[in-house]
Amino acid sequence: MDGVILVPGWMWRREPVGRGAVAGLAAGVFFGAFVLLEAGSWAGALVVFVVLSLFHGTRVARRTDRAWPGARDLDGAERATVVRATRRGEAVTDPRLAPLVVEYAGALRRTAEEDRLRRWIVVLVTVLAVALAVNDTVTGPTGVTVASWLVVALLLADLLWWPRRRARLLDRAGRAEASARRVTASREPTDDP
Q1: What pLDDT, on a 0 to 100 scale, did the predictor assign at position 1?
Q2: For this UniProt entry, which segments traverse the membrane (predicted)?
Q3: Is the CB of residue 67 less than 8 Å from the CB of residue 105?
Q4: Which of the 8 DSSP states describes residue 93?
Q5: pLDDT digits (tens, 9 = 90+) for 73-94
Q6: What angle do CA 148, 168, 12 make, to 5 degrees?
Q7: Which of 15, 58, 108, 136 is the most buried (most CB within 10 A)?
């Protein structure tokens, strides 16, 4: 899924390591709870929590830092302002942040395009998850069945709900980018004789 697109404005107040830590802990807790529900194993849930927190956190930190390099030159409040304005489709009030809105909107578009190329993997995993959930319903205990159908529900949401949500976000980012380009153009000196 779109790692950069999923990082909300308040997380951009943090440096890359902080963004990664928050995202990694959230993923670790979420999927660790799945393991606990399905297997009833605290040890398994702990392993998933630790491994996924480290892996996903590192990935988010690296992807966000690489996707929007201009963020390095801003403080946390400025990064959050740019992200919020872009995600809401609003103009930034500080004209010096306008070029960064353009840059962040471009990062969102690139990330969304990369995700589109991987959609077939989600379709394949969803088909396999449905087959596994049906099998678990017939042969497995209640916890396993519930966990399997929750995974199917999440995958279906990723296939059906998320693309529309992402399209609305990219539309708003495009509006913010257009506004930021107007601000940038109005500030450029003219070469009138």
Answers
A1: 46
A2: 20-37, 43-61, 117-134, 146-162
A3: no
A4: S
A5: 999 999 999 999 999 999 888 8
A6: 80
A7: 108
Query: Is the distance from CB of 183 to CB of 93 less than 8 angstroms?
Result: no
DSSP string, 32-82: HHHHHHHH--HHHHHHHHHHHHHHHHHHHHHHHHHH-GGGGGS-HHHHHHH
What is the C-alpha separation between 176 and 171, in angstroms, rounded? Answer: 9
Buried b (16+ CB within 10 A) or exposed e, 90-118: ebbeeeebbbbbbbbbebbeebbeebeee
Cα separations (Å) of 105 from 68, 108, 128, 169, 189?
Answer: 9, 5, 34, 10, 24
User: Could you please report the per-residue DSSP string of 138-153?
Assistant: HHS-HHHHHHHHHHHH
Q: Please name which of 123, 76, 121, 78 lies closest in space to residue 97, comparing C-alpha atoms.
A: 78
Please give the pLDDT value at position 24. 92
Domain boundaries, the chain: 3-187
The whole-chain average pLDDT of the chain stands at: 88
| Cβ-Cβ contacts under 8 Å for 156 (sequence gap 6 or more) | 126
131: left (phi over 0), alpha (psi -120 to 50) or beta: alpha
Which tokens sit at 135? Answer: 């099998």
Rounded-to-integer distance, Cα 160 and Cα 141, Å:
29
